[in-house]
Amino acid sequence: MYSNVEYPIKQLTKDEFPALLREIPDAPEKLYIRGTLPENETKLLCVVGSRRYTPYGKDVCEKLILGLRGHDIAIVSGLAIGMDSIAHLSAINAGLTAIAVPGSGLNDNVVYPRMNLKLASDILVSGGALLSEFEPDFKATPYSFPQRNRIMAGMCNATLVIEAGERSGTLITSRLATEYNRDVLTVPGSILSRSTYGPHMLIRLGATPITCSEDILDVFNMKAENANDVSSAKDISEEENKVLNILQTPMSRGNLIEALNMNISEANILLSAMELKGLIVESLGEVRAT
Length: 290
Description:
Helix content: 25-40%
Number of domains: 2
CATH class of the largest domain: Alpha Beta
Structural class: alpha/beta
Order of helices and strands: EEEHEHEHEHEHEHEHHHHEE
Shape: globular
Strand content: 15-25%
Oligomer: single chain
CATH architecture of the largest domain: 3-Layer(aba) Sandwich
Radius of gyration: 19 Å
Largest sheet: 9 strands, mixed
């Protein structure tokens, strides 16, 4: 996990809160952040689902988010084990901003769940953010998870539910999204699976069925043909472009850092972020562009 020095915890002013979050009746009094939030124009999609996901749910989540590549959409989830983790990783792999809202504070020693410390680090390195209304040293409690769900639902334009059982906490987030007048989206599944009880119930209540990435883009009034390629200037920074230009020929990490003429720590963070985005790969002692 990268330290609080490299990614310091900051308290946002009310004006710096995500715009939609300021509108909900039970908006948080405080909001702490590590990392960077996207611009206000970026559409925020909350993706939630079962912790005990099925292979179908995992494949659906990965495919839907990958299909959003190049669009000005950020993926928000709760850093939990299961579908949350898949959503965050899928966002990073698609070159989208990932935002995690854990049920704990943001200090390294309390971020929860502990087994997702590496994922939290990957989110920060890829240019995303960790958000919490809890004090930096606050340890997760049973009540803090449903409490943070209102932040995820409130800050997002829409909430996408991928698998949820009859008594799933995921349904709390979808209910809150409805109360906040946000779009609720869900993925249909097998009528024989308990994991699709929640989505099918939501569809009966009026949620929008999602069967492909284009369905999500339609909700956001975006067109698939307007998507930018992952290698566009919007997705690749000036520093990343410099790396790719140097890597016309594969080379060792040491030689690459020397060619970049950067601080070693900064260079390693840059290269890690590029690897998470799928722009470069390191194997057999060499770094090469993909």
